[in-house]
């Protein structure tokens, strides 16, 4: 005869309500884990998307994501000629705000050279860029559809294709355009500002042919560190391997957000543990007379302990399951990507089991201290 | 000794005090009490006289400070507890009936009775069968599936009695068993307890304030300030 099950069945409505409350808490915890994963995944997606082995950037910087980097456009040819380099491509990154369908759209514009590394990897809908000018491939999160037109700077671009899950660490969806268009977008000023610059003669001195980085794919036998060392011999250039670039991104760009979410996650888990402990303790305190009766009629301590621990675990597991279902149903409605891996859900399940067992300790302690004499005398 | 009159409860020189120094309260003082097979006895006295403490000592819920307690021929206390597993002793030898029946609200009538049997190690099927027999015997078998909340006071008390009898204990301790019942039902319950004591070769010790049922007891023990003052035989 399972007393925990019978008690739950007897108070089913209250148990389900308690589980629902707990499941909302679990859903928030899972959402935070998912947002954290999404943050890291988005950040890494941008770095991984070009499938580069080497990032050539401005000397002394950790660009182009952690710091601004500006190198001459001719660098690509120099890098492409290095021993061990299979192919190289110039790339630029900039954040742009544009108007579309009455809304302000924040885009992470990536300028690349079609046919060279740096472009979108997989086109989910439409096609890739084939014209030198005024075509754009956007992430689906922008809300743009194939055939839309959008104005960036002083030029209008046609959306010819869509990609998925390509955004920067800030959550801004990516938009790919050709490198020449990106360079124009970076350097082109509004007409009045341009007139003043021209009058000062500044516009004539500054070259528009700069890029944020050159990315290189190496021959299979080439050593990335060896090629990086070669690049660094040019004093005005720095080089980062793909692994170094990813480490910089995680370590600096998303580190603060990661710690912030991690801390919040810790607080949420603590709150969950306290809530579970309070629920279990309250449930136990309500049953003290019944526990005293059980002791008096000869129930061993293990019967009473298992009644409390089983109910605690049932509460935690049902709350966790409901929470997981809830977050899986709503995760796509979050403004930022929520990435939940099975291992995350399983880890939280494991934590909840431990929390439930520890939390039920309070109830168990109270139950074991109950004097069977309490059952006598009303 | 005549087996039919064999003592089931023998208490000799039992005292119990709580606290020490100025806070010391003497709940029981040098109590001697013997209850034999088939006897139904009452513990009477005002609040704080030590009735419940004596019931707790007999029920192995609290240990006496000094004295000897023998239950069903087994010496349980002799100035100290002689048996480690008092829970098992309660399960095997003692049945409890409470003022407000204390049935577990999440088990139906049958399971409330069967629980005691499963705790004693009987199989589930055996426990269910025996529980139904007892409920039928106490004429509440038709309410076997009812939850305690929907049972009447009399029905709930009969189920509680069935639970107390489940392991065929030789000693039944009752705390105000009729306090929650009207006088007619109180009389019926007491007659039932007398019948059970006779049929099960058990003895019953009840704490009560209910004067209407005094005539249902074989003997009445009066306690005052922890002292067993006198005892009187009742014609039943």
From TrEMBL, chain A:
It comes from the Bacteria. Keywords: Cell membrane, Membrane, Transmembrane, Transmembrane helix, Transport. GO terms for cellular component: plasma membrane. It is a multi-pass membrane protein. Residues 16-220 form the MacB-like periplasmic core domain. The chain crosses the membrane at residues 12-36, 261-283, 304-330, 342-364. InterPro entries: ABC-4/HrtB_transporter, ABC3_permease_C, MacB_PCD. It is found in: Cell membrane. Residues 263-372 form the ABC3 transporter permease C-terminal domain. Pfam families: FtsX, MacB_PCD. Coiled coil: none annotated. This is Putative ABC transport system permease protein. It comes from Marivita hallyeonensis.
Automatic annotation (TrEMBL), chain B:
Coiled coil: none annotated. One of its GO terms (cellular component) is membrane protein complex. Keywords: ATP-binding, Cell inner membrane, Cell membrane, Membrane, Nucleotide-binding, Transport. InterPro entries: AAA+_ATPase, ABC_transporter-like_ATP-bd, ABC_transporter-like_CS, ABC_transpr_LolD-like, MacB-like_ATP-bd, P-loop_NTPase. One of its GO terms (molecular function) is ATP hydrolysis activity. Residues 9-235 form the ABC transporter domain. It comes from the Bacteria. Belongs to the ABC transporter superfamily. Macrolide exporter (TC 3.A.1.122) family. PANTHER family: ABC TRANSPORTER ABCH.1, IMPORT ATP-BINDING PROTEIN. This is Putative ABC transport system ATP-binding protein.
């Amino acid at each position: 005869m399972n007393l925990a099950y019978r008690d739950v069945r007897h108070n089913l409505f209250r148990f389900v309500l308690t589980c629902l409350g707990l499941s909302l808490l679990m859903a928030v915890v899972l959402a935070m884990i998912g947002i954290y994963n999404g943050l890291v995944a988005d950040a890494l997606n941008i770095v991984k998307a070009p499938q580069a082995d080497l990032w050539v950037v401005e000397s002394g910087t950790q660009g182009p994501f952690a710091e601004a980097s500006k190198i001459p456009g001719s660098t690509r040819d120099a890098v492409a000629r290095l021993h061990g380099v299979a192919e190289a491509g110039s790339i630029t990154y900039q954040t742009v705000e544009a108007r579309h369908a009455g809304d302000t759209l924040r885009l992470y514009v990536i300028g690349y050279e079609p046919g060279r590394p740096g472009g979108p990897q997989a086109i989910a809908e439409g096609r890739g860029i084939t014209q030198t000018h005024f075509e754009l491939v956007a992430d689906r999160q922008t809300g743009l559809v194939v055939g839309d037109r959008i104005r960036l700077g002083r030029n209008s671009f046609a959306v010819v294709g869509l990609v998925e899950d390509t955004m920067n660490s800030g959550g801004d969806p990516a938009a790919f355009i050709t490198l020449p268009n990106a360079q124009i977008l970076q350097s082109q000023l509004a007409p009045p500002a341009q007139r003043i610059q021209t009058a000062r003669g500044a516009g004539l001195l500054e070259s528009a042919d700069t890029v944020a980085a050159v990315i290189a794919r190496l021959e299979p036998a080439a050593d990335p560190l060896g090629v990086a060392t070669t690049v660094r011999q040019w004093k005005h250039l720095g080089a980062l391997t793909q692994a170094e670039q990813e480490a910089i991104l995680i370590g600096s760009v998303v580190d603060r957000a990661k710690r912030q979410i991690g801390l919040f996650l810790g607080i949420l888990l603590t709150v969950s543990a306290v809530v579970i402990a309070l629920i279990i303790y309250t449930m136990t305190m309500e049953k003290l007379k019944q526990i005293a009766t059980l002791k008096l009629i000869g129930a061993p301590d293990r019967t009473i302990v298992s009644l409390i621990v089983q109910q605690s675990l049932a509460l935690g597991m049902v709350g966790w399951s409901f929470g997981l279902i809830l977050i899986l149903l709503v995760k796509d409605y979050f403004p930022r990507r929520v990435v939940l891996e099975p291992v995350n859900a399983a880890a939280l399940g494991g934590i909840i089991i431990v929390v439930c067992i520890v939390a039920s300790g309070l109830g168990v302690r109270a139950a074991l201290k109950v004097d069977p004499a309490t059952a006598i005398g009303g | 000794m005549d087996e039919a009159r064999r003592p089931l409860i023998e208490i000799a020189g039992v005292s119990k005090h709580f606290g020490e120094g100025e806070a010391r309260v003497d709940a029981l003082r040098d109590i001697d009490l013997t209850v034999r097979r088939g006897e139904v006895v009452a513990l009477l006295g005002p609040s704080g006289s030590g009735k419940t403490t004596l019931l707790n000592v007999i029920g192995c819920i609290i240990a006496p400070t000094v004295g000897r307690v023998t239950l069903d021929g087994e010496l349980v206390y002799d100035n100290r507890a002689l048996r480690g597993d008092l829970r098992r002793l309660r399960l095997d030898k003692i049945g409890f009936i409470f003022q407000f029946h204390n049935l577990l609200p999440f088990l139906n009538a049958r399971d409330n009775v069967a629980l005691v049997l499963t705790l004693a190690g009987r199989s589930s099927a055996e426990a269910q069968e025996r529980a139904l027999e007892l409920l039928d015997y106490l004429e509440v078998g038709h309410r076997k599936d009812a939850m305690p909340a929907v049972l009447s006071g009399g029905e709930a008390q009969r189920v509680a009695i069935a639970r107390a009898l489940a392991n065929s204990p030789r000693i039944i301790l009752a705390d105000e068993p009729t306090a929650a019942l009207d006088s007619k039902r109180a009389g019926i319950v007491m007659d039932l307890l007398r019948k059970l004591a006779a049929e099960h070769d058990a003895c019953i010790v009840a704490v009560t304030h209910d004067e209407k049922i005094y005539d249902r007891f074989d003997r009445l023990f009066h306690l005052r300030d922890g002292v067993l003052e006198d005892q009187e035989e009742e014609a039943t």
